[in-house]
């Protein structure tokens, strides 16, 4: 296998980085974080104008026809700049799912708006008391004529307060499935919840909300969960790379006892360990993303990547914070954002220990 990127994929990363570095400056982020919601509508519009929001959507809805690797490149740049835009929620959770499993009517209803920046989407997987986002329990769906009615409560739904529609996992008579509900329906109540990194999350309460069912072969909820995990890992690639870069720059400039602290053996060891962890996150993530892009099973590899993104990601940002000394915990210093984002990703959709448990239970007994 070859993990080098094509010229087109590298261009996605370069265009996104230039845009984010120009618009998602520390000053702009501070301004947004002091407001009601950490979302930059102007930047979202610029992403659409740069043809980045349709990068992994089919040409039939106005997209560029790219795949999951292109989406991963964009997500890693979101992490690099901790950009205040719902790329993960809209493209990974919502648009990608509808493009794969929605009929033409559903696709045309939502996806052209995603491409032009007028529609924000997300997906709701997490439930209270349920540690497995791939297996909904308390959210149900029942047929009502030509539509479906969904009931239940979903927790920690990314960008739900911004979204025009939500892909919801629910249990129907024939098993788990995915259903699209519009957030302007009276039966949908979106309640924002506070978060440490100021990212928009909400609780979504559904009381017989009208929905359209998505169709396809196999485990649709499990497929969405796998892709959602790898999307989080792609963001963590950018988060950890940038945190490590900030730390390396600081330790090269900060002097103690007449020389840069980066020349001290203890600091070098910490930074070397963080570099190895960052590489582990990178390679396990792109391996899983490559499998998805090739249409191959990636459930095990997604769990492995998420383990590294959670376990190693936490170590990398802890090192980045600690080599800064007291500055590392200053919330006005940029490294604090990377620490909070990495901790968010560490726990989202299953911690490192949960991923290990999934891997352990899935491993065939007696296999050597």
From TrEMBL:
<dbReference type="GO" id="GO:0003995">
    <property type="term" value="F:acyl-CoA dehydrogenase activity"/>
</dbReference>
<dbReference type="InterPro" id="IPR013786">
    <property type="entry name" value="AcylCoA_DH/ox_N"/>
</dbReference>
<dbReference type="InterPro" id="IPR009075">
    <property type="entry name" value="AcylCo_DH/oxidase_C"/>
</dbReference>
<dbReference type="InterPro" id="IPR006091">
    <property type="entry name" value="Acyl-CoA_Oxase/DH_mid-dom"/>
</dbReference>
<dbReference type="InterPro" id="IPR046373">
    <property type="entry name" value="Acyl-CoA_Oxase/DH_mid-dom_sf"/>
</dbReference>
<keyword id="KW-0274">FAD</keyword>
<feature type="domain" description="Acyl-CoA oxidase/dehydrogenase middle">
    <location>
        <begin position="129"/>
        <end position="196"/>
    </location>
</feature>
<keyword id="KW-0285">Flavoprotein</keyword>
<dbReference type="Pfam" id="PF02771">
    <property type="entry name" value="Acyl-CoA_dh_N"/>
</dbReference>
<comment type="similarity">
    <text>Belongs to the acyl-CoA dehydrogenase family.</text>
</comment>
<dbReference type="InterPro" id="IPR036250">
    <property type="entry name" value="AcylCo_DH-like_C"/>
</dbReference>
<keyword id="KW-0560">Oxidoreductase</keyword>
<dbReference type="Pfam" id="PF00441">
    <property type="entry name" value="Acyl-CoA_dh_1"/>
</dbReference>
<dbReference type="InterPro" id="IPR009100">
    <property type="entry name" value="AcylCoA_DH/oxidase_NM_dom_sf"/>
</dbReference>
<feature type="domain" description="Acyl-CoA dehydrogenase/oxidase C-terminal">
    <location>
        <begin position="231"/>
        <end position="358"/>
    </location>
</feature>
<dbReference type="Pfam" id="PF02770">
    <property type="entry name" value="Acyl-CoA_dh_M"/>
</dbReference>
<dbReference type="InterPro" id="IPR037069">
    <property type="entry name" value="AcylCoA_DH/ox_N_sf"/>
</dbReference>
<protein>
    <submittedName>
        <fullName>Acyl-CoA dehydrogenase FadE27</fullName>
        <ecNumber>1.3.99.-</ecNumber>
    </submittedName>
</protein>
<feature type="domain" description="Acyl-CoA dehydrogenase/oxidase N-terminal">
    <location>
        <begin position="6"/>
        <end position="117"/>
    </location>
</feature>
<dbReference type="GO" id="GO:0050660">
    <property type="term" value="F:flavin adenine dinucleotide binding"/>
</dbReference>
């Amino acid at each position: 296998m070859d993990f080098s990127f094509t010229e087109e994929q590298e261009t996605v990363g370069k265009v996104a980085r230039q845009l984010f570095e120009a618009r998602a400056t520390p000053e702009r982020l501070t301004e947004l974080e002091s407001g009601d919601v950490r979302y930059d509508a102007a930047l979202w519009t610029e992403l659409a104008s740069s043809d980045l929001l349709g990068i992994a959507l089919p040409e039939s809805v106005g997209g560029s026809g790219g795949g999951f690797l292109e989406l991963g490149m964009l997500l890693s740049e979101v992490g690099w700049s901790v950009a205040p835009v719902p790329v993960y929620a809209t493209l990974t959770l919502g648009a990608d799912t509808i493009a794969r499993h929605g009929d033409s009517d559903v696709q045309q209803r939502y996806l052209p708006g995603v491409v032009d920046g007028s529609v924000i989407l997300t997906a709701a997987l997490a439930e209270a008391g349920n540690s497995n986002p791939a297996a909904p329990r308390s959210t149900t769906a029942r047929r009502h004529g030509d539509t479906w009615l969904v009931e239940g409560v979903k927790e920690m739904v990314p960008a739900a307060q911004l979204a025009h529609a939500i892909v919801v996992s629910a249990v129907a008579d024939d098993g788990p499935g995915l259903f699209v509900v519009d957030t302007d329906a009276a039966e949908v109540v979106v309640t924002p919840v506070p978060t440490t990194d100021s990212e928009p999350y909400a609780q979504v309460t559904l009381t017989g909300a009208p929905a359209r069912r998505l169709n396809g072969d196999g485990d649709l909820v499990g497929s969405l969960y796998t892709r959602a995990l790898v999307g989080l890992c792609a963001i963590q690639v950018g988060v950890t790379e940038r945190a490590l870069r900030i730390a390396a720059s600081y330790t090269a400039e900060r002097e103690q006892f007449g020389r840069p602290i980066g020349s001290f053996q203890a600091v070098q060891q910490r930074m070397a360990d963080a570099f190895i962890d960052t590489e582990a996150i990178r390679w396990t993530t792109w391996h899983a993303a490559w499998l998805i892009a090739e249409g191959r099973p990636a459930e095990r590899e997604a769990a492995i990547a998420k383990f590294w993104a959670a376990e190693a990601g936490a170590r990398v940002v802890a090192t980045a914070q600690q080599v800064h000394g007291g500055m590392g915990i200053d919330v006005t210093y940029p490294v604090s954002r990377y620490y909070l984002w990495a901790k968010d990703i560490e726990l989202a959709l299953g911690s490192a220990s949960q991923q290990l448990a999934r891997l352990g239970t899935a491993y065939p007994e007696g296999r050597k």
